[in-house]
């Protein structure tokens, strides 16, 4: 009955994101931020951030038991609480105001008193959402949500995929394979080296995502601390804001309009989208290797490849991944482009846009899952790759003409026009082992060079491919 595939057909693959990027997760994060702001105003500490307490004169000093009670509000935010908050929002027609009222209900004397006995929490009720605009709560909530989704869900899955490709690269580092540039036979490589290129590219993007900053602000309706300074003029409010934001584990943004500028989001999404596009390249390359027979797919017992052709084992994991990566990139690109712009001090385009962060990461996570499963079902057909190499001896025209150039520079006579002579021999023609060796024998190369070339085969002409895998995938 789900409208979208991520909440229906593919729910299992993306379920871990629900705890970070769903509507319920957003409201839980809002409650968390509101609670921690209340603790900061009363006690002057949140996480590693601290300032002289109380921030607001007369605010009660909260006990450890009272703080624990407050922090249980987001920690126990479940189905009943979701329904209660939804009912409040029906009355307020404002999501963040509903969160404020939801928390205040739990600070009421009868509720807090029943849990704690004697408590000062009712006296702190009006410090909930003190001097805040909705965006003060929302920007911090989204930063915490995205950071959690990236660090706890997306990055581990993406890293496991990159490591899986790297392991395959090591396994096949010495398996020779004919390259194809422009779709045509080209200088041989190894299967492992080509996989290593992709693993290296994926890991570079992961390194960028790992270093992402998640920015936050808490500075009022237009970023001036206007309400703060009028209500409590003797406080260094930027210092309080910085301590609070950094205490949440975020990077403080000191200069904003009403909204945090979202530039950090655009940066993260661009890096994730670039990872997606590299993964898309991997999926299309592997799909092509399958079509060439270089990879065979291990059939799944009971599975059907075609409704009419029983012999088929379709590369559906990689095709599914391609489509989901394209959808993810489209969403990430839109998020990046839209979120960095806001009319004057605030418009609401970012509000509905950010509600699509979950689908953007969901389609990427689904693609990662499909590629990982697809790679596990592959078997490298080294015999077919060897046959392909043996049918393309003309690719040795490159090393022969390069050896002739080096010999010419060393003063060996008769080495004129090496490229042109190999071109005449090989271009548009099939050359077998006998013809290539016969040609080399007529060149008048020094004996050691001639012997080296006579021993060379397309399968052995892989340069430092195996070593490159060993040296640069550490």
Automatic annotation (TrEMBL):
Residues 8-321 form the Fumarate lyase N-terminal domain. Keywords: Lyase, Purine biosynthesis. It comes from the Bacteria. Pathway: Purine metabolism; AMP biosynthesis via de novo pathway; AMP from IMP: step 2/2; Purine metabolism; IMP biosynthesis via de novo pathway; 5-amino-1-(5-phospho-D-ribosyl)imidazole-4-carboxamide from 5-amino-1-(5-phospho-D-ribosyl)imidazole-4-carboxylate: step 2/2. The keyword Thylakoid does not apply. One of its GO terms (molecular function) is (S)-2-(5-amino-1-(5-phospho-D-ribosyl)imidazole-4-carboxamido) succinate lyase (fumarate-forming) activity. GO terms for biological process: 'de novo' AMP biosynthetic process; 'de novo' IMP biosynthetic process. Its EC number is 4.3.2.2. Residues 342-462 form the Adenylosuccinate lyase PurB C-terminal domain. It catalyses: (2S)-2-[5-amino-1-(5-phospho-beta-D-ribosyl)imidazole-4-carboxamido]succinate = 5-amino-1-(5-phospho-beta-D-ribosyl)imidazole-4-carboxamide + fumarate; N(6)-(1,2-dicarboxyethyl)-AMP = fumarate + AMP. SUPFAM superfamilies: L-aspartase-like (SSF48557). Pfam families: ASL_C, Lyase_1. Belongs to the lyase 1 family. Adenylosuccinate lyase subfamily. NCBIfam families: PRK09285.1 (NF006764), purB (TIGR00928). Catalyzes two reactions in de novo purine nucleotide biosynthesis. Catalyzes the breakdown of 5-aminoimidazole- (N-succinylocarboxamide) ribotide (SAICAR or 2-[5-amino-1-(5-phospho-beta-D-ribosyl)imidazole-4-carboxamido]succinate) to 5-aminoimidazole-4-carboxamide ribotide (AICAR or 5-amino-1-(5-phospho-beta-D-ribosyl)imidazole-4-carboxamide) and fumarate, and of adenylosuccinate (ADS or N(6)-(1,2-dicarboxyethyl)-AMP) to adenosine monophosphate (AMP) and fumarate. This is Adenylosuccinate lyase. It comes from Xylanimonas oleitrophica.
